[in-house]
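Q: I have 352 residues here and want to know how they pack in 3D. Can you give me a structure?
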Amino acid sequence: MIEPTPALAMFLRVALITTFAYAGTLALYVVSMLAVAIPESRFRRRQDDVEDYEAVRGSRYTIPVSVIVAAFNEEGMIVPAIGSLLGQAYPEMELIVVDDGSTDGTLAAIDAAYDLEPGEAFSRENIATKPVRTVYRSRTDPRLTVLVKANGGKADSLNCGVNFARYRYLCTVDADTIFASDALLKAMTLVGKDPERIVAASSLFGISLTPEFADADAREGPRLNNHLLADFQHLDLMRSFVVYRTAWTGLSCMLCVSGAFGLWRRDVILEAGGFSPAFSCEDIEMTFRIHERFRREGRPYRIISLPNMVAQTEGPRSARSLISQRARWQRVTLETIWHYRSMLGRARYGSV
């Protein structure tokens, strides 16, 4: 047996202590978040059990919502996604699909399913975006508007949708996601209890390798895919939403309103200047920007996450693509934290 040199032995000892210290700190953090998340989740579940959703559906005073879908080369998923959104059990909504210069058959697929015709739509032009080439309206469903614009990225597409949106609350969603029919109803019912303070909200979604065939209305939770990688992602998202984001709701320090399903108050988005194309991921940056602005100005607000599963979205099918996705998530998180590093350690930003 070869004896390690004193320097190597010291290095290994420090590495071992550091590893155990990190693992212990992480475990303590998870347990702490769980302690906060459990009572918050129980409260939301009890609230959900006694809520009269039928009364909300039939009310003339329900807050209308503009749903914005940013789509780029989503030929295979766009029609099922639109169908799930137009099938929402919600009294008043509009659906704005922004085709961000797709080079595949995305627009043709929508046209075949919803019989599009060129038309006009009111736009406020509050946020500068790439030019809109054509506005289409559906002959079969007047709630559907399709905007075809020059390619500018997801943030630019969302801003384009914001310019055309008519309603006070915006729901920004991904084009590769299938939504439960009560997704808007449950989220907006809670928002409607405190619309002045709740400026953003998100909720749990599951992972499916074939979301176009998935049952997004499954009440028992996300269905298994019989695929180890996809089911691991299920478990990871449940950890993130059911534990961390529920706890962050209770602590008033939400890290990110997910781009797959995010509710935003329109006036707050406009006040912030729209989603920023300068960042790799627009959802976490907007969440941080709202925290920074409202905390700095001492204005009351809430950003919440709900325990309900509202959708199923596509997940990476291989270890390589999963690693790439998670590396990107870490990169954009660090990018945003670094940009807002002036918030760290300052009393005015509280738990954030």
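Q: Anything worth noting?
A: The CA atoms of residues 132 and 286 lie 23 Å apart. The beta strands are 65-71, 93-100, 116-118, 132-138, 144-149, 169-174, 177-179, 198-208, 261-265, 302-314.
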